[in-house]
Amino acid sequence: MTPTLIDLRSDTVTTPSPGMRRAMADAEVGDDVLDGDPTTRRLEERIAELLGTGDALFFPSGTQANQTGLALVTEPGTELLLEGNAHLVHSEMAGVAALSGVSRTRTAPPAGACSMPRESTG
């Protein structure tokens, strides 16, 4: 029996099945600000366990995850080099500038392959 494929790329292409809707309706909920949502906490704990990390953090959107990741590894004034067709160029526009103070520079490497020397951190 071939397993059913569930497309989780985006909430705009995924249609919840009746079972998914039932699971959402029956899920234990809490206050995500005061004490955390128990269902989300269990998901984060399970992902941390699967990845072998101390903790994991759930982001409800790819944009939120991307912007948080960029904020963690950059500082205001950083120049972010992006291949000209990168997702951040076309889909997240000026979010990095507005949220992190980071500028974007589009690059056009041959055949889309980018090979740059790594900056020494030591």
Q: What can you see in these coordinates?
A:
The chain has helices at 18-26, 38-51, 62-73, 87-90, 95-100, and strands at residues 79-83, 103-107. The chain has 122 residues and is mainly alpha-helical. Among the domains are: 29-58, no CATH class; 62-112, no CATH class. A two-stranded parallel ribbon has the order 1-2. It is extended. The mean pLDDT is 84.
Can you lay out the helices and strands and say which pair or pack?
Blueprint: H1 18-26, H2 38-51, H3 62-73, E1 79-83, H4 87-90, H5 95-100, E2 103-107
Number of helices: 5
The total beta strand count reads 2
Major sheet: 2 strands, parallel
Strand content: 5-15%
From the helix content, strand content and strand pairing, which structural class follows? mainly alpha
Arithmetic mean pLDDT: 84
Helix content: 25-40%
Overall morphology: extended
